[in-house]
Amino acid sequence: MPTLSFKDRGAAVLAAHARHIGARRIIQDSSGNAGAAVAAYAARAGIPCEIYVPSKTSRRKIAQIASYGADVKTVDGTREDTAAAALEAASRGDAFYASHVYNPLFFQGTKTYLYEIYEGFGGRLPEVLFVPVGNGTLLLGVFYGLKDLAALGLIGGFPRVVAVQAQGCAPIYAAWAGGAETVAPVVNQGTKAEGIAIAAPMRGAQILAALREMRAEVVLAPEAGIAPARKALAARGFFVEPTAAATYAAFLEWESKSTAAGHSAPGTLVLPLCGAGLKDA
Ligand SMILES: *Cc1c(COP(=O)(O)O)cnc(C)c1O
Q1: What is the sign, positive or negative, of the torsion defined by CA atoms of 27, 85, 132, 56?
Q2: What is the pLDDT of residue 17?
Q3: Which of 30, 134, 142, 273 has the smallest set of CB atoms within 10 Å of its CB?
Q4: The pLDDT of residue 146
């Protein structure tokens, strides 16, 4: 992942498509990592690019986006205000809106995450997959990837999927726990996991439908567990940003609950470490 997050998978497909259709300018909005990925691949495609980010985004993420030559627009306000500003700019001009949230081609890239796991395990899948969820681009990639493998007859069934939201901003968890079919927006109570802090996920209903079809579980990453989980990962040689540590924090709680309930540990389980530690400042 050249820009140090999984967003490269989707951004590569979006930038290739933008070049294919002759786009002369790209607009995107992000809490940081998708912006960096789109800026990098836009640069490779030779297309000028504007990236909208909330002004509270980690300074290093903003510096990374700017380093690829993108024009960084910081927006005072929420992540949703940032998306609105980008949409407005995209609807005014002739730019290609390379949103990882709106543009479905992004999932064609994130699907490769699932394919790679399948290949890495020698043509099968682990018993359990943990997947962080904010806007659901990795989760939906996993879902469509699973459906592809099933349609090709390469897997007999789906693995257990455990979706992770941050305790401080968990609209999908709330909707899932309440058995709802749509996601009501929440107020972000503050979370260390900025990469999954999506208070009003645009694809909420689609994410819930995918979770139902996969018979997934949805769990919370305890805020107080994120910093210790980050340290624990570093002690094992993995330096990750807090959002990535949130998935591990959720796993540790899930594991201790499942041990306490007398369940045996799964034989194989994959946790994605979605963003590198140098991103955070
Ligand atoms: C984007 C991102 C996520 C979550 O992806 P969504 O598409 O918002 O669900 C998780 N971790 C990191 C580090 C990210 O950059």
Answers
A1: positive
A2: 96
A3: 273
A4: 98
Contact 273, 233 (CB under 8 A): yes
Q: What is the pLDDT of residue 281?
A: 57
User: Which residues, at least 6 apart from 39, have a Cβ–Cβ distance to it below 8 Å?
Assistant: 28, 49, 51, 64, 65, 68, 69, 70
The alpha carbon of 132 and the centre of ligand 1 are apart by a number of angstroms equal to: 7
How many angstroms is it from 248 CA to the middle of ligand 1? Answer: 14
Rounded CA separation 261/255 (Å): 10
How far is 18 from 247, CA to CA, in rounded Å? Answer: 32
Q: What is the mean pLDDT of each run of 10 residues along the chain (281 residues)?
A: 96 96 94 93 97 91 95 91 92 90 94 98 97 97 98 96 98 97 94 90 97 98 98 97 97 96 95 91 57
Atom of ligand 1 nearest to the CA of 201: 8
pTM recorded for the entire structure: 0.94
